[in-house]
Amino acid sequence: MSENDQFNNQMGDLMRSEAQKLVSEFNQIRSKYSHGGLKGSDTEDIVQEFLEQYLPKTYGFGNGQIIDSSAQISKEVDIAICNQFHPFTYSKNGRGMLFAEGVDAVVEVKSVLNESHLRKSIKNCRSVRSLNVQIPAGTHWWDGETDGKKRMETTPYAIFAFECPYTLKTLDEKREKIIDDLDIQIDEAVDLIYAIDTGLIVLNRDIDDMVLWGEELGIRSPGYVRNTSEPDLLQFLLFLQDKMPNISYIPNIMKQYIDFDIPE
Fold first, then answer.
1. Which sign, positive or negative, has the C-alpha torsion 78, 83, 86, 88?
2. Residue 92: what pLDDT?
3. What is the pLDDT of residues 136-181, one digit of tens each?
4. Longest pairwise C-alpha distance within the chain
5. Quick one: pLDDT at residue 35?
6. Residue stretches of the chain with pLDDT short of 50
7. Dihedral sign (CA 103, 178, 119, 165)
8. Which of 37, 86, 98, 259 could link 66 by a cystine bridge, Cβ 3.0 to 4.6 Å?
9. Peptide bond preceding 245 in cis form (omega within 30 of 0)
């Protein structure tokens, strides 16, 4: 076994252990609230703590609604992953004002991902994608200007669920039907759909995106792909970060929201 294979196996074991830990914490919450239903904020906290542990430490985490400089407001989001240039307008608990240009990704958390919850999440994604992201002049990206703009303008949106009553194939078919019913365009579409007990579905926006070979083995084209490789949790992390814009510098975001000139 090569050193690379050994490392891959270690990472796989680590993520399987993390998935088991997430499920155990989720079950503790379910037991605690067995007579009143799950408390959504507690399940969101579990996922946020996991993301805080494994994403770069430069990110901040908020929740609530996202606003753009045209005063459009998204539906409420569970976890907003904010870049280091987001103004300090939200509390340590995450509540507060979220600016579209400062949010690098959104994660919607579901205890159980059934068809109704999937439809609601897809609608929520559309509300985030309808925001007008005004990239300030002078913004720089690590991964090139064109790619950075594309990722920033279509804020990555992921669904994270603890349980799903369907097989991965059935979940994907329900996703496809909902997208058709709502006439969702590719720029409005959810990037990642993940359920710990079911698997991962990934959207490749174009053929230059990172490609995941799943059940559509051998096909490299825009569209959704079902992941069949393990561990899914590691794949979720890799794809989430890969779809984020990797910003190296943004000038003052709030200048676009405040109607007065700042003296030079």
1. positive
2. 64
3. 888 888 765 556 677 788 899 999 999 999 999 999 999 999 999 9
4. 63
5. 53
6. 207, 209-220
7. negative
8. 98
9. no
Residue type, 63: N
- Write down the H helix ranges in 40-163: 40-54, 115-129, 145-153
Nearest C-alpha neighbor of 47 from the set 13, 83, 28, 23:
23
Tokens of 174: 């329900």
Residue where the block lists tokens 């059934």? 114
What pairing do the DSSP bridges indicate for beta strands 60-64 and 77-82? Answer: antiparallel
Cα–Cα distances in angstroms (integers) from residue 67 to residues 71, 202, 219, 257, 262, in the given order: 6, 27, 38, 10, 22
Annotate 146-174 with b (16+ C-beta within 10 A) or e (fewer).
Answer: eebebbbbbbbbbbbbbbbebebeebbeb
CA dist., res. 119 & res. 99, Å (int): 25
Nearest of 30, 54, 55 to residue 42 by alpha carbon: 30
Among candidates 205, 197, 215, which has minimal Cα distance to 239? 205
CA–CA separation, 97 vs 80, rounded Å? 11
Q: E strands of the chain, at which residues?
A: 60-64, 66-67, 77-82, 98-99, 103-112, 140-141, 157-163, 192-195, 199-204, 223-227, 247-249
Please tell me the distance from the alpha carbon of residue 216 to that of residue 240, in angstroms, as a whole number.
20
Helix (H, G, I), strand (E, B) or coil at 231: coil
Per DSSP, the three-state class of 45 is helix
Rounded to two decimals, the pTM is 0.89
CA distances from 7 to 3, 10, 13, 20, 207 (A): 6, 5, 10, 20, 28
